Amino acid sequence: MTTMIKLNQAALARLPDGVAGPAYARSNVARSIVHIGVGGFFRAHQAVYLDRLLHLPDQAEWGYCGVGLLPHDAGIRDAMLAQDCLYTVLERSAQGDVPRVIGSVLEFLYAPDDAEAVLEKLADPGTRIVALTITEGGYYINQGNGEFDAAHPDIAHDLAHPRTPRCSFGYLAEALQRRRDRGLMPFTVMSCDNLQNNGDLTRSMLLAFAGLRDPGLADWLARHGAFPNSMVDRITPVTTDEHRALLRQRFGLADAWPVTTEPFLQWVIEDHFPAGRPAWELVGAQMTDDVAPYELMKLRLLNAGHQALCYIGMLLGYEFAHEAVGDAGIRQLLGRMLDAEVTPLLPAVAGIDLALYKRTLVERFANPAIRDQLARIGTDGSARIPKFVLPSVREQLARGGPTTLLAFTVACWFRYLAGRSDQGIALPLNDVHAERLRDKALRGGEDPADLLSLHELFGELSDDPRFAAQMTDALGRLYRDGTRAALNHVLAATQ
């Protein structure tokens, strides 16, 4: 490639061959949606939908202002501002790579540099929706009881310093207070995080925070606020220097922070936006009165499927999801678990063929171009296993149904927590409870009782004899016979 083009607004007129970009006038687009948490997933998902919409006539009233609240957002701030908030989405599949420059983010504000600018943007009457991708930790949920964690140091700080907050709830509450004082209605708060009932959860946690700050604010928000639920789906690996180099070498485009993703894209949204909303349905999003069936399908099939393949995959020495799914034994484990132990628990989902959905999942996991790291999928198992796997265990136990493969998946997590693969390779453990989990895994060894005693994770399953027996058998085989032999045994037992 002889010519290298550095991505910015001026470069849009001369993008390299094969690279599409925004054909709309970005200067005419309103910055009416504030998005907090401008990470890879938001840029590969929600911003892509809006970019597509902006290519249609009469849609310019909707554009994004991105906000970074945390010190580690400085990197994305520097990249976005240097490129006039443009960036490249690279869709990757076995059929090839398709790059597109996204223009729907018009502005980026970095709260640690200027909290007041962020607060005034949120309080501005032109801000109609505030969307969030802040990860589970950003909602300050006490994992022990599911209630708001009012004792968290961030919450204590924001209650004491409302004009210089640290966390999203502090910013939202202060901005909403200003809107209330100015006679404005609240903006719609839209969670786009991978949490069940994410809108209801956001409402509950934000009202709890607002109530601690000012009961009158909480009452006003409860009466007038809107918190639509949504379900989001697109596999988006972490951006690496390899991705930046690929764009430079193959397409002649220098982008400081591109995002790579799969072709698949899904968004189901509860249609409750009193202040108006973009016409997302024109570009493939599904508007509905009830997100719950779609959400349950995704959490129990896609997310639980990820858990089924990532820990055993790492124990067997694989690094990427496509490698794990390419293993015939893991593929059988995944398929049988979803078919026999999860699908019978799911309600019918309008417009969805579950058999086709599962086949598509396996194809997505097997996409070799994505190179989705198993370590990424296995992050925060102490949050993901209880949300994605254990609900199916509970329901099957209650109806006397099969749980052998679900239990084997949990046993693989327990074995993974010990820290080394069957080949002796050190395994990464990225979990908020990492030290405690590893200590219990090493102390318990092939006996799962120590880990099962964590009632905040397992609840009543800690004392369920059938589940304990299955865990004891599976974990014992993983330690005594090795992962491959344990996998072969469970597959033979569930034919």
UniProtKB/TrEMBL annotation:
<feature type="domain" description="Mannitol dehydrogenase C-terminal">
    <location>
        <begin position="290"/>
        <end position="478"/>
    </location>
</feature>
<dbReference type="InterPro" id="IPR013131">
    <property type="entry name" value="Mannitol_DH_N"/>
</dbReference>
<feature type="domain" description="Mannitol dehydrogenase N-terminal">
    <location>
        <begin position="32"/>
        <end position="281"/>
    </location>
</feature>
<dbReference type="InterPro" id="IPR050988">
    <property type="entry name" value="Mannitol_DH/Oxidoreductase"/>
</dbReference>
<protein>
    <submittedName>
        <fullName>Mannitol dehydrogenase family protein</fullName>
    </submittedName>
</protein>
<dbReference type="InterPro" id="IPR008927">
    <property type="entry name" value="6-PGluconate_DH-like_C_sf"/>
</dbReference>
<dbReference type="InterPro" id="IPR036291">
    <property type="entry name" value="NAD(P)-bd_dom_sf"/>
</dbReference>
<dbReference type="InterPro" id="IPR013118">
    <property type="entry name" value="Mannitol_DH_C"/>
</dbReference>
<dbReference type="InterPro" id="IPR013328">
    <property type="entry name" value="6PGD_dom2"/>
</dbReference>
<dbReference type="Pfam" id="PF08125">
    <property type="entry name" value="Mannitol_dh_C"/>
</dbReference>
<dbReference type="InterPro" id="IPR000669">
    <property type="entry name" value="Mannitol_DH"/>
</dbReference>
<dbReference type="Pfam" id="PF01232">
    <property type="entry name" value="Mannitol_dh"/>
</dbReference>
<keyword id="KW-0560">Oxidoreductase</keyword>
